[in-house]
Amino acid sequence: MLRVFALLLLSLSFSLAQLRVVTTYPWIGDIFREVGRDRITLHVIAKPTEDFHFVVPRPTHIAKLRSADLLVINGASLEIGFLPPLLQQSNNPKVQPGRQGFLDLSQFVELIEKPERVSREMGDVHPEGNPHYFLDPHNIPSLASAIVERMCLLDSPNCTYYRSNFEDFQRRWKARLKEWDAGFLQLKGLKVVQYHKTYDYLFRRYGIETVGTLEPLPGIPPTPKHLERLKKEAENKGVKFIVLEAFRKGDRNSQNFANQLGIKVVVLPQDVGIENARDIFSLFDEILRRLSV
Q1: pTM to 2 decimals?
Q2: What contacts 98, CB < 8 A, 6 or more positions away?
Q3: CA 80 to CA 93: how far, in whole Å?
Q4: pLDDT tens-digit profile of 165-208?
Q5: Distance (Å, rounded) from C-alpha 79 to C-alpha 234?
Q6: Domains and CATH numbers, the chain
């Protein structure tokens, strides 16, 4: 009898233990909040105000990675500038690439804009393709599903709990997706200039045309010659907005370019936790609202 009671206590202690999760970006962390809730501890490396590509590594990140059970990344080389040294210094074999405690979400979507070749003269090109896939709301359910499957693998006592939360999340997401589809499709045919090709997945989904980018090449600042060519094309095609991410808010090149064309700069949240995007639901609410003005 005592042995059975001890086994029950041991089982209960495992089910109540919290899965220690580290994510690279806030949007991934918010999915964990939806499906993991009180059964996980969560640390997000990047701040929503930071450029995706230039996140500042900090000692706190190393400490969190050192004790983590699971690391989940965006992938497609987006974290290449800051994650490798953090992983190396963490000395945690559980969350290294190739282990069960490491999950690259980019493998669960079809990436666009894969370059045929990669060289320095092409700018900061991602070899695997455009890494901003999560900004297509239709990709989120499969990403959340992949997260839950890995949580269940690492924390089977709480698997039923995670799956139940995922089903609730998926039900709410499907309902909102109908609203977003209807709203974004009203913008079909809209022509914009982006600073960087951040919103290509979203714009391709809903028929919004990116006429060009202020960057002549990815990661390369605008040049006068490039801006002059882009200005002529934007005028010919009737561009309505200059679109840039919230972390570029106040960028002078964007505002000067918009002033020359007599159009507006529209600042969009690029992740959860900024510009009224409190969570992953309101992220798409806010993007739709700002593009619809």
Answers
A1: 0.92
A2: none
A3: 19
A4: 999 999 999 999 999 999 999 999 999 999 999 999 999 999 99
A5: 32
A6: 14-177 (3.40.50.1980), 179-291 (3.40.50.1980)
